[in-house]
What we know:
By secondary structure, the protein is mainly beta. Helix content is 14%, strand content 58%. It is built from six helices and 22 strands.
Amino acid sequence: MSYDHDRYCTHNAIDPSFATYSTHAELNYSHQTGHLNLKYAITYDRSNMTQYQAISDAAMPTLGTALGLPTTVDSVFRKFGGIARYINGQEMDYGVQAKGGYSYNVGSSHKGVLSFGAEYNRFELTDIRYQIGYDFEQTFNEHPVMRRVGKGSENSGDIYLQLKHQWQSLILNAGLRYDYKLRTDDSEVNEFSPRIALILLQPKWNVKLSYSKAFVDAPYFYRKANLMVKALQGTTGDFAQKVLPERIHSFQLSFAGNGWVKGLDFELNGFYNRAEDLIMTHIMDYKNASKNKTVGAEFTASYQLPRFSTHFNLTWTHTFKSNLMGIDMGEQLNKYFDTDINANNNTPVIMSNLVVGWKVTNQLKLHTHILFEGKQTSYNTDLVYLIRTVGGIAAYQQYAAAGMEREAAAAMQETIGYVSQIIMHKEMPARAILNLGADYQLGPINLELNINNLLNTRYYRSGMNAPLIPQQGRWFLASIGIKI
Length: 484
């Protein structure tokens, strides 16, 4: 949903956006004894995170009802637009790491490296602000309970073991990682992440077959935001649905060649990815609602001479199973509501990059980048119709419980009209983005000029969980560096 960015007030000098300011400190020590090398580290990270989300320029009469918010908030949403949510938090993370590797040789045919490691982290959210805004510049008074609900800490640790073993022309690369997290709500995350690859290595080509499983835990902010929505509703305790980690399984088969033509290397890679429990934003809370199954192929090549280099890639992607949001509308509405799009969402079927570099003299270097993205479709949730649907379902249930059959039927009929419009889509044409740049070295002084989007192409980008956002037109970047 588009919004008038400039009408919303700033919070701590930040406009509607997601922003993070981070500080990192690390102390490490490493040493090697024979074939064994070890490294130890202590880390400290501090971040100030902000999520300033514009929800709607227009008034949303059913938003408060759909979310179960207090009457005072609901009445404001019916009268005023410029509705937004502001979350700001300060977090710290302390970590301890130990990792190492042992290299070995067994006879003349076997050699390899055994890698291992362990890590412990403690995360703390020391302060948090959660405010609801309206009329673009006004905010509701922050309730003290919101800060108490938002603060917290959690502990996590992981261990891993990886073996890379070569027997003549065959390489086995296998690893296993175990992650454990004790979340702030005392729930636990236990994840095993295996990976294995077989590589056949020849002088001018190689073939690789691999499988891996990976996960990303739901961010602390997302999980706490769900609790704070409940606190805003006047409810305490666990929220209805816990946010689980996102997971992906990936299979790849690749063929690479080198030295067939002097200076030319290339690789062709086919892949299949299966993602599950993807996290989506539902108005003001977060849920594991989406899944995705994708196949694709990628061709990459590079050609390098002493003064000239070219890098090229071409990717084809096809999503054959995907949904946008996992909402059960109930037996009477599900037949009108299909969230399975089973197509690429905000991802072109064809994408390509070409990067060319030319060393004109020892001082002057020129480079260019051409990005091509084929036609694509953007699917998104229409927040207005989603809220109207949720409100319509609530009205239908109230009328039905009271035995008001005529009113219940009218509410259901009106809601059916909303359901069919929840999923919106927009076609985006193919585009080519051209960037040029030059780099000149004058003794210790480096001069650089880049022209981005030279043709001033007008286009949009989006994401799985974001509306269409206009991208920057032609812009210039000049810099001067001095090496002392």
